[in-house]
Automatic annotation (TrEMBL):
This is Outer membrane protein.
Amino acid sequence: MVLMSLLFRFFILSILVNLGSIYGITVVTTSGKTFEKVTIEKDTDRELEIVDKNGIFIRIKKEKVLKLIPDSQGQAPELAVDESVPTGPVTSPAAVGSLPEHSLLLSQSVSNDGAFQGSDLFGERQARRKHKNYKDVYESYFLTSSIELLGLPKQFKLGMTIMNPMVDRTNTDSDLRLQSLPGGPDQTDIVNKSLSSGTLLYDPAQVRTRREKNGLPDYLFTRAMYDHETRLGTFSAGFLFINANDPIYVMRGYWVIGWKPPFLEWLNPQFSMNNKMLNDYGGIFQGTHNYRLSFSHEFFKGETFRITPSLVIGYADVNDNIDRKKGVSDISPRLQFDYSKFFFAMNMMYRETPSLVDNASYTPSDGVYADSNQNDGRVTDPSKVFGYANQYILNQISTNAPNDFVKRELTQHYQQQHIIHSIFFFNLGYTMKI
């Protein structure tokens, strides 16, 4: 009898699955949550994968499914036995090609810092701006707004993310340096020589303190992807463009290729290649590659409270066209807690190979000497460059050093610090459909 009951339940479930692929069903979970007018995309021994009318995929554990109810099709038939029994209002079926219920998936969050492929987006720039040493936790708060377009065919993904700094947006002065243009070389030494010699060696109308464009920039990430499902997994291809409201960064463009294998579904493994294709910085980063491997698992899927740990590992095949360094660019774990529409996430970016960012392109140097060793994992400490105390120490080194070699070594030892390996930041926000 038990075997017959199981076979009967399996037979009914198969019929509902087949009906769901054609018409649509309602899924009722053990927690009382219902998913109406959905179709079944995949049915395994452990999970049920459904797609709602907006094309969003939802996975539910089998033990969480209470029952499946096929949606009625067309108008309810008339009751021939007793016409006095009310049948309720008849709902007209949706017209073919009608607009989806929701158009956008909006997500907004506040964070104290951001990262991308081993590069810090805000914190290290803020440290240079405020002449503070590099550290592992920053207070460069910004608002992130992400929009995903719903209602598209499920193969297409289109969205954008904009990051708007909430602090240090405006430009500041040049720290009492005398310049002929914003961001130009310091000409204080020429002014001092003119005063000591009595000969004017500069143009007073041009050389003065100037405000530099060193405010934290806005970032805009735009992405368009196409997914193709096969027996070997889901293959993806598309573009990622990064615009920055910055006097140096123009645009970063990536040709993205991804693969999601059909195995280890519990870990949700995904592999992607970000191939740099646009020409900025005079082409220094054009043609660079970063390979990304990610894992994640959502606990309590479909429930009000959910926990999602994830891990992303990035490997830079070529970091830029000049240094051409290789290595693990970042190891980025994340732990996210969701309650209804709200979420809180803790993130870390660990730079396994700090020499990838040990150059003036990633961490510009304002020290006395340029960073001559780009493999020692050391950069100029912004807090050891300007100010009277630093100038006094540098003058003492210059005066008492027996030769130029010792002077250079002592100066760089004083002005440099190790590149920060681990950077921590958080996200607090919400997600909703519009």
